[in-house]
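Q: I'm writing up a methods section and want to include an example of the input and output format. Could you take the sequence below and give the corresponding predicted structure tokens, formatted cleanly so I can copy it straight into the document?
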Amino acid sequence: MKQRITTLLAGLFLLSGMTMAQMFTLTGKFEGVNGGKALLQAREGRQLVTKFETGIRKDGSFEMTGKITQPDLYYLKIGDARGVVGVFMDNVPIEVTGNASSLHLAKITAKGATGIYQKYNELRKEQSVRNRPLFQEYTKARNAKDEARIEELRNKLDKVYEAMDAENLKFIKAHITSPVAPYLIDRSAYKFDDPVELENLMNQFDPKLHDYKYVTRLHETLELKKLTAVGQPAMDFTQNDPDGNPVSLSDFRGKYVLVDFWASWCGPCRTENPAVVKAYNTYKRKGFTILSVSLDKDKEKWLQAIKEDKMTWHHVSDLKFWDNAVAKQYGIRAIPANILVDKKGIIIGKNLRGKELAAKLAKIIR
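A: Here is the clean output for your methods example:
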């Protein structure tokens, strides 16, 4: 009997241990907070929805326990403090400490996917500090409208962004079997113009992540990228111009067409527009045109930006912001973005910017 009881208790302890291992314990302490609630929120659509909450003690400490169905980025709101702390939640012990006046500097200590994501954040912060002087120089040149300096710095920034992308990809590959990898790749999938490169990365995911939502989304993204890859026929579409007239991509068959995705509110788009205008003015009489698809939602701001940036070509939009039908059809999840289509309607280039766009047009248009 005694042996059977001992065995039963051991089983109960084992079951308890397994259950706790599948739950997270989030402990925290923030200076400048003396009560209120700590809320752990998840993004649903464009809203943050509270999933877990607990009270904050007078010394600014709190503890929260729960179960995460799938690892994901959550947002920790501390009392009345402004802002949130991004925490990639996994079912592991997690400690968060900081000051209510600077939540973006909060320290997160954890293992598992949470710890890996924190290391990624540290890499991004290092990149930001390292490149801040160049970003500041570029902003100064733009404010001064120093075109020569802007062009010089834009070329430097292109190389900086390439280096950052290479660093980030190296990090992802080093943690390819972690849930963090599909999450980060999904966030940056727009940078993978070659579907083969994306598929090769996905083939290295942990098989246990087969049903992970970001893996599922990446499979959908991959199929769309195959449909919109260089060498594929460009999918036709129709949207209205500012006057309400329908305009189709197929209307321009027989010309080289740059389908340009942008918006008046998109800073990088507005920065890129002078290069696009230059390309248009250089080749518009040689069988080249542009069809811009705007992700705007305010018609007046859309029209004002077209005028300010001297974009004297064809423009369409359904004014549905990120729900723009053409953007969704082509899997556009970041702007600026573009697709270059030849006279037969075949995609011959993607995301060509600045000198790269000029070089491509110089090569194909005589």
